[in-house]
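Summary for the funding panel

The consortium committed to producing paired sequence-structure records for every protein in the target list. Below we show the first two records in order, beginning with the earlier of the two.
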Amino acid sequence: MSPTVFQQADALHPALSDPKNVQYTYTDPLSEVPALSGVDASFDGSTPIIDMEGLLGPRRSEFIKQIGHACEKNGFFAVRNHGIPEMKISNMLDTARDFFHLPEEERLKFRSSDPDSIIRLVTGFQDKTRNIFVSRQSLKFHCHPVEDFKSHWPSTPPSFREKVGEYCASVRKVEVAILEAISESLGLERDYIDRLLKGHYVSINYYPACQESELDVTHGVRTHTDPTIITILMQDDVPGLQVINDDKWIDVNPIPDAVVVHVGDMLQALSNCRYKSLLHQAIVNCERERVSIASYCYPSDDAAIGPAKKLIDDDHPAIYKDFTYKEFHESMWRVKCSTAKRLDLFMAESD
């Protein structure tokens, strides 16, 4: 009999077999995950698609309304004509695969349990409390400005720093343009969110193909929201992303030459819960590996994160009190929660 995915994990990473060595960054209480039916595959065309070129023309206000509607009703949207050259996208995805195809000892040089590391590798792990294996492997690193951080990145494969740096610089421009449009969609100054920004954090995600016999107990990534303002996701051509829409799980299949943008916890707070952080997860398959590139937009540590004053009135009282991103970030690792419920610590006191 072939070893189970749990036995394989223990063999590859002995620390996983010793509970004293397992360093969980969070748990996922079953009560946090909505009790939803299976994936609804009938939602053809369910992903809102925004043509970013529209933001540059005379119909900008129309496209801003489309973005606002997508944020409010769906929590995510796809962006076409985003301006990231196709070659840079291809190079980034190829480089990601090359890194995760390196010998394990080469990749594990970047493994760290410190969430504040400039760069760290996160490997798949066994969640014994829920009897599942989370298979995603991720290389997470800071990347803005690129020149300040690239010396910390892998030098193998040889093209890593050049190709990744080119992609990160391009996606940063997209990030700023989208955040300006989101600010305007809320009726705020165009640079309202931009003034809160600190840096740019990227996660290169690798999902190995899974044995068919292990599919029922293997997750790519468990249900969660992102502690970001927005996340910009570039997927390869292998499906895997699932989101909650109208109280149903739906597949968000890759759209050629498009990136997916979704709402994070910080935008939920800034918008006074008008735009809600997107619950999502990733699944695996037993035929093909999958690669995605997540670009995280987050505020500076001292940025005041609370409902924009312009969004508060007698009919729309503040749902959250003011807090700093540093306060949120520090609490996030204490409350052991992987969804936007971690914002509950910052709820405004009712009169």
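The next record, for a separate protein in the list, is shown here:
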Amino acid sequence: MSCPFLREQPVAEGARIIRRAFQINRVLRDRQDPLAQRESVIVERYRFSREGVIYIINLLEPHIKCSTRRSRALTTAQTVCIALRFFASGTFLYTIGDAENLVKSAVCRAIRKVYLALKQFLGVFVVFPSHLRPQVVKQNFFAIAGFPNVIGAIDCTHIPIKAPPGPNEGDFVNRKGVHSVNVQMVCDSMFHITNVEAKWPGSVHDSRIFRESHLCTLFERGDFDGILLGDRGYACRQYFMTPFPDPNPGPQTRYNAALARTRARIEMTFGQLKERFQCLKSLRAAPDRACDIIVACAILHNIATIRKERIPVVGVQPDDDLQPVHLDQPSGRAARDRIRSIKQRTQDTLYNSSFARI
């Protein structure tokens, strides 16, 4: 029989005492302001200056801002800085979580939220042939080695990923035996990425990626007045210049040298992109998510280049050394000979004008 002076049953009170004894208190750690650091620390950690990080925060805030602060949700600044830290370092998610006092799942959600928001700005920051006028792009390329009418340098680069499960795993193994995504990019002379195609497995050849890209369709349709520069792995077309396989001494050798110096811009762009965002050296992500991260890094690279952020130190990039898989088309050979003759006439004109001044 229960005591009439007690409001509740003794058994219920005892159960509450036991529950309190085994209850795990919820620990809400204090998260510091990610930008409350020295400028050098911010640049090293996020690859952007303080003003650059604030610009990205303001750009993405309408897309990633939490509607409430329930359960002490991450602020926009914290979400952006977590993603930038992952892009810059490429380290494990739990390592970033330990540094930011967060669990791994929260870090993963923050990164995914940021790169999906960045993808919405692809048409704003990645524009072909450039943000500049086409004539300015051609003049800047011509100033490098005297190669006329160039509006872009194109190439592909392999981004290593972890082996995906399923029957299509073999499609991602490239010629070096590494699982990767083959990414096609085009740049201008100012290292701005003007086109990116990130959806093909590593076993696909560069020439096929270009043939089936939207950019090739636009060139075949005649929408652009200019030419692209590629390596010998591509087929030479009227709008696509590649080097001579076995150049003869004289004009052909000078043509190859001018093309190599001008096309080096895309190799330098790849170097800056991978040094700025170390995650691109090895992505531990599924292929679809890896492609989204690659596009997000390309957009961030353009933002950093436009804002003149600090350029990372780039080491020597290995040559791709691809063998051509297509024979020269007649229209491509004729266009290449025409470019060589134009370059020769330009050099003769400059020589004659300088001789006349003397």
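Regarding this second record: The two ends are 122 Å apart (CA to CA). The CA atoms of residues 306 and 339 lie 31 Å apart.
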